[in-house]
Design goal:
- Helix content is 60%, strand content 12%.
- By secondary structure, it is an alpha+beta fold.
- 24% of the residues are buried.
- The protein has four domains: 3-139 and 378-455, no CATH class; 157-246, no CATH class; 265-376; 468-502.
- The protein is built from 13 helices and seven strands.
- A hairpin with an 8-residue loop joins β2 and β3.
Length: 502
């Protein structure tokens, strides 16, 4: 490897790794902010949270890589231009294309790795992240009983606490309504004070009560049914009582990942093609069934043929095309037959319309689902191409702007990335709604930004100052000086000839 190539790659790798992990961190914070309510207060263990963050970070890589390529290439070429190293290289006879060549090859490798990651790694991480997040969302929160409010978070129990001492965890004025027998509110426990804590295995709530009463309605047996006006009742007094209440649903239960495997974000290219081909075949089968049903059950449902309410029995007419004047045939019917045939035709038309509408809606829903698989299939390629396009935008921009660091490059990179993201989201929405095909919808951003990259590369090659802000600053400074000199000349001329009107 030549020293120049090594120098360029070394200058690129540092900003690329830095910006990649910064973007991952920012996107991960956005994820935590979005799902903070599902994670807080559930007593999750550290390894569960770490596993979720790991899978989420991997799922954010497709969004982080293009932005990192854009920002790193802009910073690298911008830093070279700001330190006049780019000027020195051009003065030595080295063209901008040759300077960008090692970065171009490296960006191509990044694009290939991004495609492989999106096809083989991303479906697995999406599957594990989505299933784990679903399990966390289904997990019930930790036991949090507040003062003066009935807590119904434990199945079959309703608990009331009058006052809580936060220093000693002593609870006062405790009421526990037991509905576990499935017969309604027939058992209640009242206690002056007590303690509650969850066992170490989080399977039971240990309740220790002091100085209380337990009231319970006794369910009458068959012998007591002879006395319908009697209602047995049991009351127990205790100085200390220890109860174990089972906590169902408070632990994290892992769902079988097979339930999520058919989702389009959890599939690779081959699986995506199989599913959307299957869906389109299903639509074709439904359409053929609809056509056959309409032909056999609606249009030609009466066999043998009847003309003027007479069956055709002549063997010479069978198998031949029959023509008749339907107006004459209808006029030949009596009044009641006409009414009957009209009612039958209307009923058949309404049934056919309802069947066609439902079939059309089912086919539309199936086609919408098939589009999602096609969109995801195209996305795996657009990710790799986006890395390539952003390099052709960032590198020429850096050579034109000639500003390194995290100031101007960050502003420009975020602006272009937001533009790319808005166009991508719009194209994907058009593809989902059927306005554009999945191919054109997903490649819309590439069709718009690729010519921009070619234009910027041409401008950087010709040393254009189109985006050099120093050039514009110097232009406005010169304009200010010209206007100032003209104003001074006008003032001097006015002082020499006060009677002259200007």
């Amino acid at each position: 490897m030549k020293k120049l190539h090594k120098f360029i790659l070394t200058s690129f790798l540092g900003p690329f790794c830095l910006t990649f992990f910064i973007v991952i961190f920012l996107l991960l914070m956005q994820f935590l902010w979005k799902y903070i309510d599902d994670l807080v207060g559930k007593g999750l263990e550290f390894h569960v949270i770490a596993e979720l963050l790991l899978y989420t970070s991997a799922s954010l890589v497709p969004m982080a890589i293009p932005l990192a390529v854009l920002l790193a290439s802009l910073m690298t070429l911008g830093s070279l231009g700001e330190n006049y190293e780019l000027t020195a290289l051009k003065a030595a006879g080295i063209s901008l294309q040759r300077i960008m060549r090692p970065l171009l090859i490296f960006s191509f490798l990044i694009a290939v790795m991004a495609f492989l990651f999106a096809n083989y790694v991303l479906p697995v991480t999406n599957l594990k992240m989505r299933s784990l997040l679903y399990d966390i969302q289904q997990q019930r929160p930790e036991l949090q009983i507040r003062e003066g409010v009935f807590y119904n978070g434990i199945e079959n129990y309703s608990i009331y606490i009058g006052k809580k001492d936060y220093r000693t965890n002593l609870l006062k004025n405790i009421k526990i309504y037991d509905h576990s027998n499935g017969r309604g509110n027939i058992g209640v426990t009242l206690a002056d004070s007590g303690y509650m804590r969850i066992t170490s295995d989080k399977k039971y709530l240990l309740v220790t009560l002091y100085s209380g009463f337990q009231y319970k309605d006794v369910v009458r047996d068959r012998q007591s049914l002879s006395k319908p006006n009697t209602y047995p009742f049991q009351r127990d007094k205790f100085d200390e009582e220890i109860n174990y209440i089972e906590l169902s649903g408070f632990g994290l239960v892992r769902t079988d990942e097979e339930l999520f495997k058919q989702h389009y974000q959890m599939l690779n290219l081959g699986q995506l093609k199989y599913y959307y081909d299957s869906l389109y075949n299903e639509v074709e089968v439904r359409s053929n069934n609809l056509k056959n049903t309409l032909l056999t059950a609606t249009l030609f449902q009466n066999r043998p043929w009847r003309i003027a309410n007479k069956e055709i029995t002549d063997s010479t007419l069978k198998g031949k095309i029959l023509t008749t004047n339907f107006d004459s045939a209808f006029s030949a019917l009596d009044y009641h037959s006409r009414i009957s045939n009209i009612s039958s035709a209307l009923s058949s038309a309404r049934d056919s319309k309802s069947y066609i509408t439902s079939s059309f809606m089912n086919n539309e829903e199936t086609i919408r689902g098939a589009r999602k698989y096609q969109i995801e299939w195209q996305r795996k390629f657009t990710l790799a191409i986006a890395c390539f396009i952003f390099f052709f935008i960032g590198a020429p921009l850096g050579a034109i702007i000639r500003k390194g660091g995290l100031g101007m490059p960050v502003v420009v990179s975020v602006g272009f990335f937001v533009l790319y993201y808005v166009i991508s989201i719009s194209g994907e929405k058009f593809a989902r709604e059927g306005v554009l095909s999945p191919f054109y919808g997903m490649w819309l951003s590439a069709f718009i930004l690729l010519p921009l990259g070619v234009f910027l590369t041409y401008k950087a090659t010709t040393d254009s100052a189109i985006l050099n802000f120093d050039t514009y600053a110097n232009f406005f400074k010169r304009m200010g000086i010209i206007l100032k000199n003209r104003k001074e000349k006008t003032k001097a001329a006015r002082n020499e000839n006060p009677s002259t009107v200007y």
